[in-house]
Amino acid sequence: MSLKIDGQLGHSQVGNEKEQRFPIGATVRLRDLDRDPYPILRRLLQHEPISWIPEVSMWFVTRRADINAVLKDTETFTSQSPSSPILDTFGPQMLSTDGAQRLKYKSQCVPLFTAIAVRAKAESIEQHAHDLVDQFATKGTADLRPDFAVPLSVQTIARALGLPKESVSQIRTWYDDFAAALANFNRDLATRQRGRTSAEEFRTQVRRLFPQLKHNPNGSLLSELLNGGGNRLSEEEILSNALIILFGGVETTESLILNAVWALLSHPDQLNEVRGNIGLIPAVIEETLRWEPPVQSCTRFVTRAVRMSGIELKAGDTLQCMLGAANRDPAGLHEPDLFDIHRPRVAEHLSFGAGPHFCLGAPLARLEGEISLRVLLNRLQGLALDPFRPSAPRGYEFRKPQNLFLQWNLPAF
């Protein structure tokens, strides 16, 4: 017996039909993607490149060509939707809007995040990296996440925004709630509310800084936005865009540092090459971004009925563009599952997205990753993974090692 609602097939029958049509998608579970997404994504790419995933009630798109098309067509596949977890958590900002509004937001922020602008921060970032290493260099062991990757990424983005140094510990608390809210594919209400609450705490605390930043400009992003002319953003718009920049600046950079160190130390032959030629570090960063991207997907919402790769999508559908799958698409890529710092055109990955929403902070993340690897390899002789406390990246949306235990040789006295 079929169910009908207003002449249409009921949700149960429609869902069953989708599961029968997309049997691989029906088996996908977030817990399995959390451990190791790549074999699952490979099966989807090969057999169901656009597949319905019942556990999250979304379409997963896995083929590079399809994802490129989606990310570049903002009229058909928009970031702007009441269903957007980024909108729900942070309010309207450059990643939850399209068209003129997105351009207004992003254009105000771009000048401080160009490659030239972030290179001016290199000296201070490198000094901070050395200061962090000073705190554990004589111990012979460390957990790189709390001891290095977190404080470096948090303090760097805090400085860029114009937040005081004392806010660093609070930023970390906010960040954890933001990450959970944005990865909340199952739409848990408590997780959503924690993200909103932390965002409101951020707004309250940062708003108190505005009078000082207005009267004493310091070249930071908040200062520049508050004192800009012409098409200046409102204070609420500044806060919402600062929130997404804060989150992206921590997530992408922390994860990139951890993933790059883990990947390189897991491949001893390539590690030895890099030790002998520090000029290979940018290639390590790019191959890490391709092979183990910090952010695994981009969400888009379908605005009109459209057919893609033989699949009918309807207005209101949610797509997850699986960047981790696209980066390992064998179309035009030799042995994509191998980590290879000598890979041709290594920077042609989608880990920073594509199209109008290409990541604003990509130059800063790359710079922090390169500086981190260089400082760690130069300062910590014989750097290696701790064999007694193994670790590896985890996460179906934001992916990195939860801990990264390292060891190195101490000088003999």
Can you walk me through this structure?
By secondary structure, the chain is an alpha+beta fold. It has one domain: Cytochrome p450 (Orthogonal Bundle). It has helices spanning 11-21, 23-27, 30-35, 37-47, 64-72, 85-90, 99-109, 115-119, 122-134, 144-161, 168-182, 189-207, 210-215, 221-226, 235-265, 268-276, 281-291, 323-326, 362-379; strands spanning 4-5, 8-9, 50-53, 58-61, 77-78, 141-143, 297-302, 306-308, 311-313, 318-322, 384-385, 393-394, 400-401, 405-407. The strands form five sheets. It has a five-stranded mixed β-sheet, sandwiched between helices. The protein has a three-stranded antiparallel β-sheet with strand order 6-14-11. Strands 1-2 form a two-stranded antiparallel ribbon. The longest helix has 31 residues, at 235-265.
CATH fold-level assignment: Cytochrome p450
How large, in whole angstroms, is the Cα Rg? Answer: 22 Å
Low-confidence stretches: 1-10
> Separation of termini?
82 Å
Number of domains: 1
User: What is the CATH superfamily?
Assistant: Cytochrome P450
Shape descriptor: globular
Number of helices: 19
Number of strands: 14
Mean pLDDT: 93
Beta percentage is: 5-15%
The CATH class label is Mainly Alpha
Task: State the share of residues found in helices, binned by percent.
Answer: 40-55%
Structural class: alpha+beta
Spell out the blueprint of helices and strands.
Elements (H helix, E strand, L loop, with lengths): L3 E2 L2 E2 L1 H11 L1 H5 L2 H6 L1 H11 L2 E4 L4 E4 L2 H9 L4 E2 L6 H6 L8 H11 L5 H5 L2 H13 L6 E3 H18 L6 H15 L6 H19 L2 H6 L5 H6 L8 H31 L2 H9 L4 H11 L5 E6 L3 E3 L2 E3 L4 E5 H4 L35 H18 L4 E2 L7 E2 L5 E2 L3 E3 L6
Helix pairs in contact: 9-10, 9-19, 10-15, 11-12, 11-15, 12-15, 15-17, 15-19, 17-19
